[in-house]
Write a structure and sequence with these properties.
five-stranded mixed sheet, 2 domains, alpha/beta, D-Maltodextrin-Binding Protein, domain 2
Length: about 325
């Protein structure tokens, strides 16, 4: 009987193997949570479903992962806003500059507009397994920025093919240099660029911080992230496995978001100890940044999302702030 049970378990273990890829490196919090997620769905499904995980860009950048999912070489991936936007442009509204002030405001948008975002993913051929926030993005520079006008003199990196970053930097009068994420470190070393934008944790993990001296204390945006799975592959699963996968995905990705927020706060403290100087932003300069963010969001309306949806999102934030007694 034991032999038969073991044989049956081995057989069902191969029923649905989800090949998953991400740029997150092995040993990161991302990978720790993904392996916990994998273990949970394997256990609950009796071995009928599980992930085969490819971390650290071994399957290429986010565009490459999406291409491999389309041809069936992979089935799932962990993405930042750039990859998510290739699937569902509407979702990029979450990454627009100076939209949100806090994690609570981001959570409010995920909650209020969750159905619209999930529908956009499904229209693009994917199912959302869980949001995995990347974190608040800060501008890091080799040169000290004392006022918004200083930005026009820096050689800013921008993620190649990212329309949100392009609109943001255009509104800030920056002419950025588009590069693949894999080229940033070497470009900082050679002087091709002297500034970049990323959450503090990524600046540490990628060692980009070693090439700069300053960080702007007011964040540019809160970068969205998520785990997606091919809808075509997902629809082949029986309903019980779909439920196990989605329920656990939401649980573990929510945990990952909480850990990411904690780790980013700690990373900013570590960067300070490493000699990265924080650049404060005064009220008048902040107002100019916020105004630039509004111009960038309007420039993207009609391209990534409708003007009506933008108005709904901005109104939702205004109402949320009013309910909390907060302001911009």
């Amino acid at each position: 009987m034991i032999v038969l049970w073991a044989w049956a378990t081995c057989g069902t273990a191969q029923e649905f193997v989800i090949k998953f890829a991400t740029v997150a490196p092995e040993g990161s919090t991302w990978m720790s949570i993904m392996r916990q997620y994998d273990a949970a769905v394997r256990k609950e499904s009796g071995g009928r479903i599980g992930f085969r995980i490819y971390p650290g860009q071994v399957m290429g950048d986010e565009s490459a992962v999406l291409r491999k999912i389309r041809v069936g070489q992979l089935q799932s991936g962990g993405f930042t806003g750039v990859g998510l936007g290739d699937v569902a442009p509407l979702v990029r509204i979450l990454d627009t500059p100076f939209l949100v002030n806090s994690a609570d405001e981001s959570d409010h948008l995920y909650s209020k507009f969750g159905k619209e975002f999930e529908a956009a993913f499904e229209e693009g051929g994917y199912v959302l397994l869980g949001w995995a926030e990347v974190g608040f993005v800060h501008v890091f520079t080799k040169k000290k920025i004392t006022k918004p006008e200083d930005l026009s003199s820096i050689r800013m990196w921008t993620w190649e093919g990212d329309p949100v970053a392009a609109a943001a930097f255009s509104a800030l009068d920056i002419n950025p240099i588009p590069l693949s994420i894999t080229d940033v470190y070497s470009s900082l070393q050679t002087g091709l660029i002297d500034a970049f934008y990323t959450p503090p944790l990524a600046a540490l993990a990628l060692q980009w911080f070693t090439q700069v001296k300053y960080v702007v204390q007011v964040p540019l945006a809160n970068s969205a992230g998520a785990v997606l799975i091919s809808k075509k592959f997902f629809d082949k699963m029986p309903a019980d496995l779909q439920e196990i996968l989605v329920r656990n995905g939401k649980k573990f990705m929510a945990e990952l978001t909480g850990l990411s927020r904690r780790d980013n706060a700690k990373a900013m403290e570590t960067l300070s100890r490493q000699g990265i100087e924080g650049i404060p932003v005064g009220k008048s300069d902040l107002a100019r940044y916020v105004e630039a963010g509004e111009r960038a969001r309007q420039a993207l309306a009609g391209k990534l999302y409708s003007k009506e949806f933008l108005a709904q999102v901005e109104k939702a934030l205004q109402d949320f702030r009013a309910s909390k007694g907060a302001s911009r």
